[in-house]
Structures are given as structure tokens and as C-alpha cells.
Amino acid sequence: MKIATLIVRSLLGILFLYTSVSYFLHLNPEPATTGDFKAFQVGLVASTYLIPLAKTLELLCGLSFVTGKFTTLANIVIFPVIINILLINYFLTPESLPIAIGIFVANIFLIYSHWENYKGLFKMNG
To answer: The domain containing residue 36 runs over which residues?
Structure first.
């Protein structure tokens, strides 16, 4: 289980580092978009803060996953971003859905592998 966790954590970290660094350094051209996804993307870009925020979280969590530091926190911080990636792909770009499902499953696996660290979140006080 430790080796699988290390591999999944490293791959997810490298993926997040690559996508965030590519965004900030403009390493890849923007893919052409059409239809509903284009309208959605125009709205995200118009917000001026949402994409840079998501890419900053991806960068920080990617660093966390690659270094192995604060991974319990990174799993929770990146989870809403991954849910949005999954839902955007499901509703607007279903051809990319397998990648989104893979990222979601990888995050769930990492949460499961660190479950002892999350038990305190679900305790009932009283």
C-alpha cells in the first residue's frame, strides 16, 4: 500500500505541477473551445481570479504531493478543484471524462490511504 500511495501521490503531484506551471508560464497554447464549454470558460476568465486561484492551489498541492509534506491537508484543499474538474468534464467536455475520473479516483485513494488523519473531522462532540 505504501508503494501504491507513493506512486499515485507522485503522479498526481507531477500532473498538478505541470498544469499549473504551464498555465503561469504560458508553455502550452490555449486549446480551441466551442459551444457551452466556450461560454463557461469565458465566464471563468471574466471573473479574473478563479482560474489563477485554482492554478495556485494546484501548484501548492502538487508541491505537497511531490515532496510528501502536508499531504493530508493537500488532499482536502485540492478536493473541491477536482470535483469541479470532474463536473466540468461530465457536463461540458465528456471526451475528457476518463482523465477527470482518474484524477478523482487518485484523490479518493490518497484520502483513503491517509484515513487515520481524517477521523477527527468526523467525530461528534458531546
So the answer is: 2-122
How many domains does one find in the chain? 1
Q: What pTM, to 2 d.p., does this model score?
A: 0.89
**Is the separation of the CB atoms in 118 and 111 below 8 Å?**
yes
CA dihedral for 72, 78, 79, 85, sign (positive or negative): negative
Q: Residue 64 burial by CB count (10 A; 0-12/13-18/19+): exposed, middle or buried?
A: buried
Contact 100, 5 (CB under 8 A): no
The tens-digit pLDDT sequence of the chain (126 residues) is 899 999 999 999 999 999 999 999 999 888 778 888 888 888 988 999 999 999 999 999 999 999 999 999 999 999 999 999 999 999 999 999 999 999 999 999 999 999 999 988 888 876
